[in-house]
TrEMBL record:
This is 2-oxoglutarate oxidoreductase. The lineage of its organism: Bacteria, Deltaproteobacteria, Candidatus Zymogenia, Candidatus Zymogeniales, Candidatus Zymogenaceae. The keyword Cell membrane does not apply. It comes from the Bacteria. SUPFAM superfamilies: Thiamin diphosphate-binding fold (THDP-binding) (SSF52518). One of its GO terms (biological process) is cellular respiration. InterPro entries: 2-oxoacid:Fd_oxidoreductase, THDP-binding, TPP_enzyme_TPP-bd. Keywords: Oxidoreductase.
Amino acid sequence: MKKIYSRPKYLKKVPMHYCPGCGHSIVTRLIAELIEEMDLAEKAICIPPAGCAVLTYNYLDIDSVESAHGRGGAMATAMKRILPDCLIFTYQGDGDLAAIGTAETIHAANRGERFTTIFINNAVYGMTGGQMAPTTLFNQKTTTSPFGRDMRREGAPIKISEMLALLDGVAYIERTTVNSVSAIKKTKKAIRKAFQIQMDDIGFSLVEVLSPCPTNWKMKPLDACKWIDEVMSKEYPLGVIKDITEKEGVKEAVNAD
């Protein structure tokens, strides 16, 4: 019988705490696969702050340093400057990155800090009960926006990736999702490229992943996956938002599958 899947070497054999249908577990597995495939285990350091992402260090068998809420960008800056040869990446949700951590993220990206951010966008505060996040969509009902997000009352959803793409220090930003097999493959390719750009010392890189949150969206997992295609990706279009690697003439390895 042909073996088509093995547990990644750097994914610990422990139960995950994520809710059924959550995208965090998929992205965590992809990171573990890439660290093994790119032979970066001895150099990789994960920085997970608060939110559902906080327990990532329980699953990735690499060095990790937990930062205070929203301070992933600041801590990653320090870690990368002290250890420039290491792969430093933050693993942050939308509540952490797009709310309390906005300043750290924007200024680190503007300075072109050589680390990578994996940005999980599920449009709510997942860990604390599904409150409205900066990324909550118009008309989306949450526990703190029971009538749906309204422009006059709560303002517009913040498009972090488009904002950061305007900054000169940013080398690469792509928005993906994990709601289908093909989408998962694209997400893995995007994270690989972001990691390679960092190791090639080009600039700040970020992959935003639209992630299903069936529990707080109050949907079945399959319906949550469909909602990403039918609703969420209309507000947050998928694809490459910024990529300077062609202009910079990066090695062919950057674009390798």
